[in-house]
Every structure is written in structure tokens, then in C-alpha cells.
Amino acid sequence: MFIGTADALFGPITTILRQGRTVKYIPWTAFKFALADWERVNDTCTIIAQDANSIQQYFSSEQQTTLWRGIPAIEELQTAWEAKLTTSKYILYKDTIQKGLDKLGKYYQKFDDKPVYVLALVLHPYYKLTYIKMQWGGPEEQANKYAAGNPNTVDWHDEALKVVENTMEEYSKYSSPPTAITPIPSYMDLGAPTVESDYDRHCRTLVDQASREHNAGWCAELRHYLKDIPGDVSRDTDIIEWWLVSHLDAYCNFR
């Protein structure tokens, strides 16, 4: 409304002079948005607010840690912008979106120097190493890229596993050994004449097996954790709460 009446009230917003002579008037109405202009504003809001700002909100929490969200969040933003890069609707913004992806890639590469992001992701029971294998590639992807002529290709799943193994090995030097599981005494141990049944021997075997696994160290514990597929987790699971409630005893070397 202001722009529609400003010319009559105040005259042109700008007067261009050349050699003391007026050569051009720029009216206020020159800055009035047409429908196409508003559509571009909406497109910009989608690219910046809907994509980038929504990702930023992943890290706004007063109730739980969010470090593990780092890698998935950056990749989610990359995916959203890469999709727009090849969409005709956003062809006008192609160069700008590409510059945004280049900047994003610059910071994405920094994850290689910060193993804590990989560790936090692996410690989240919803992601573990499976996410890294799917997103970054494992031995099959490495073999395919090598066959395609890339001699420097990397098995990122194996690289991430090494990060976890090296960290656990280092921290195991300072951790207390796990408390051994006390075997169930047999009838013979108690001095009773009753002979053990097949089921008694079966139970003893299970206890002995559990004791060996419990004291096998961080290697066996890590393998067990990575293979376990819990049904009570999602991408929004509070990682601290999940570990504190019932899983620190099961994975004592993760403490």
C-alpha cells in the first residue's frame, strides 16, 4: 500500500543525474513485487528456511545430547539441495545452490578429522555402523569403484570400524575388568547325592558360555553390540537414556 501511493506523496525514490541533467527517475513502484517475485521469495524460503533451518533445529535441545545428529543432518541437507539442483523449478537458483553445496562439502570433509562424530553415531543404537556402510560405502562399493578406475577408493565402513576399535582399545587400558558371573553350583558341589539332570548340565553350559562372553573383553562386546538389532529404538531415541536404563550392564566396556 505504501509503495502504491509513495510516488504521488514523495516523488520518485531516486533521481539519476548526468552532467547536471536529469536522465532518469526511478519510481517507488519499480520495487513493487509482482506475483512472480513473490514466488521467488517463496522458493528462497523453501531453500533456506525449510531445508537449512529445519536441519538446524535438530541441534536445539535442552533435554538430550545431539552430537550424533551431526553426520545425518549434513547428509540430509545435502540430499535436499542436490534434489533441487536438478529440478526445473529451481533452475534460477542453480548456481547459488551449488555454492551452498560446495560450502557444505567443505565442512562435511571435516568429519574425517573428528572421530567423535563417528563414535557418537555408532553409539546410537538406531544407526551404529550400518548407517555408515549404507551412506558411505563398504567393501563392495570400494571394489566397484576400484574396478571403475579409482585406485584411491576407501572402504568407509572399515575405516569407521577402525575408529571405534582404536578408541575402545585405548579406553580399555583405564577401565576396570568386568565382574565375573558367579557359576551356579551343581548338586555335587553342594555335597548332595542327587545326580545332575540333562537340563542341569544345559543350564551350566549356558552360564559358562555367558561368563566367557562377559569376560571376553571389548572385542567380543563390540561385535555383539554391532550385530544386535534392538526393536525399541528410533532415530529420535535419547541415546543417553537408552544406555543408562538397561544397557550399560550389558556392555560394560562401553562405559
From TrEMBL:
Protein's UniProt name: Uncharacterized protein
Superkingdom assignment: Eukaryota
Lineage: Eukaryota, Fungi, Dikarya, Basidiomycota, Agaricomycotina
Organism: Suillus placidus
